[in-house]
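Q: I'm teaching a short session on how sequence maps to structure, and I want students to see two examples side by side rather than one. Could you give me a first protein with its sequence written out and its structure tokens following it? Keep the formatting plain so it prints cleanly on a handout.
A: Of course. Example one:
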Amino acid sequence: MNIKQAVPLFAVSVMDKSLEFYTGCLAFEIKNKWEPRGKIEWCWLERGGAALMLQEFRTEGHDSWQPEGKVGIGVSMNFICEDALQLYHEFMNRGLQPSEPFVGNHMWVVPLRDPDGYSLFFESPTDLAEETKYSEWRND
């Protein structure tokens, strides 16, 4: 098996804001970082078996880039979990506002957006009916 892992790289507008979200709110850990000007401009984050990279895009200089809108719009990442509902409660307790969990494709799905608009979906298997909402299921 030659290919071992796929790790997305998210371009972020403000690294400090993204790091607070991913490390402070989602409990990812910084495993590697690049600090060419005394602050983190790129990093590798992990939580459990998942990894992602963040890189702040430069707005000045020869390698600058200005997105036309929010960089994360239309981009999603799915994290397959043991218990997505446990993460929903963890995120709520940390002051985040994920959307209401629902069942899709035989998975509990907990939707959340990061500061740049990237869609994050935390999912775990379930036998419940498709489109079941957490609030409906909890009241049964």
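Q: Perfect. Now a second example for contrast.
A: Example two:
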Amino acid sequence: MPSHRTQRASEDVRRELTDIFRTLKDPRITGVLSIVKLDLTTDYSYCTVNVSSLDGESAAREAVAGLTSAAGFIRREIGSRLRLRRTPEFIFMVDTGIEHSAEIHRILRGLSDDN
């Protein structure tokens, strides 16, 4: 279980990442991106960010490719904005949980309409 200090740092990183995502000019990063889950290790060396897009899974995959190529810039920005013991390396991943939940909801709704 993460300590209070790690939880607070995770929330700070999440807030700053959201702001940085808005300022990135990579054409692959379009639409609205949301950070579904953020895991910061206790020694602040790695940060895994699960990203979802309202435009669908393919847009999220393109955005993750753009974020991965901009990881060095993002790391530098986080380092200058926050005072952390160590600036983490970012690992961006596509999160399909929202789409999966919507698909299950659609299936269940179809079953209830059949009855």
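Q: What should students look for in example two?
A: Point them to this: DSSP finds four helices and three strands in the chain. Also worth mentioning: Helices lie at 4-23, 57-69, 71-81, 97-114.
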